[in-house]
């Protein structure tokens, strides 16, 4: 009775070891696939193990976490391009006199007080 119990434990531990080894092998193959396969996102994408979010380097490279799917990377890069295009539009930081309903004299007065050279005097 003890030998059959010992044999079944040995068989179970061998099966458990095989299962753990198979799981580790699948994980290694998956990580190799994620690091080697390079779909085209419009810019080179580097997958990083220790990254927590996307990071762009001079709009030429993107570092993303390994666990992000290709769809997540694609959407993040598309959002970055949209935001960078929005940032190129000049928006006034202070209220401009013309936008507040004041006439052109207000802007001329503001220009003169700002130290611009007077023309014609």
Task: Write up what this structure looks like.
The protein has 121 residues and is mainly α. It has one domain (2-92). It is built from three helices and three strands, in the order H-E-E-E-H-H. It has helices at 2-36, 70-87, 104-113, and strands at 45-48, 55-57, 61-65. The chain has a three-stranded mixed beta sheet, with no helix packed on it. The longest helix has 35 residues, at 2-36. The chain is rod-shaped, with a radius of gyration of 31 Å. 2% of the residues are buried.
Oligomer: single chain
Please indicate the count of domains. 1
H-E order: HEEEHH
Assess the beta-strand content as a share of residues.
Answer: 5-15%
Structural class: mainly alpha
Terminal residue distance? 116 Å
Kindly report the spatial arrangement of strands forming the biggest sheet: 1-3-2
Average pLDDT score = 75
Number of extended strands: 3
Tell me the number of helical segments per DSSP (H or I, 4 or more residues long).
3
- Report the C-alpha radius of gyration, rounded: 31 Å
How can the largest sheet be summarized?
3 strands, mixed
Low-confidence stretches: none
